Amino acid sequence: MDDHTLASTLASAARDLLARIRSEHDSGPELGREGDRRAHHLLVEELARQRPDDAVLSEEGDPVAPDARSGRLWIIDPLDGTREYCDRTRDDWAVHVALTDGGELTAGAVALSSGETHSTAAPTPLPGARAERLRVAVSRSHRPPLVDELAEVLDVELVPMGSAGVKAVAVCTGHVDAYVHDGGQYQWDSAAPVAVARACGAHTSHLDGSPVEYRSADPRSENLLVCRPEVAPVLLGALAR
Asked: How confident is residue 183, by pLDDT bands cut at 50, 70 and 90?
């Protein structure tokens, strides 16, 4: 299968495994650790079987060799939104699987807990713009002060959500107009969501408008903007203030 289909298939398989684990275990931190561990092993083992020559960077794995960035590198988050996963009243967690080649995103998939998987295999174009107040997805558990400052200079509704993948997909489906994040993020948090959002036609950048890239050996990726393209200038201008 091609890389797009593989990303979607693996993300979906890990999501389904996590759902089974969740149904069989009590809530709490141990559930998150078990889910992270088993989803990581599923993804790493399948990538070793399907793409034995490719490198893998996982939130739950070891750092990759420096030269891995120059070739094909899978960037995975076996469970994005661990807090939400451990809380049975929440369903805003996801699995991220992305592929970079020479630091450039080439494929990606976000498998939502709902059973839906959004991927570069069959991207759905952004729906039409809403003639309403801008809705901006923000982190539920790591809400940065910047988003409240944004709401002071721009008339927006802040919508708290869990996983970065859930927030990016919310832009793709038209549930929100933008996703703004500042601080405390890593490449495995953003790679698959950015790949899927770009494939749908959304704008993706850092908060200063610079492109989001995956060439750096440092896995940190501190801030992110995913939004409808027509609102990017407005949001970037407000964020610059």
From this structure: confident
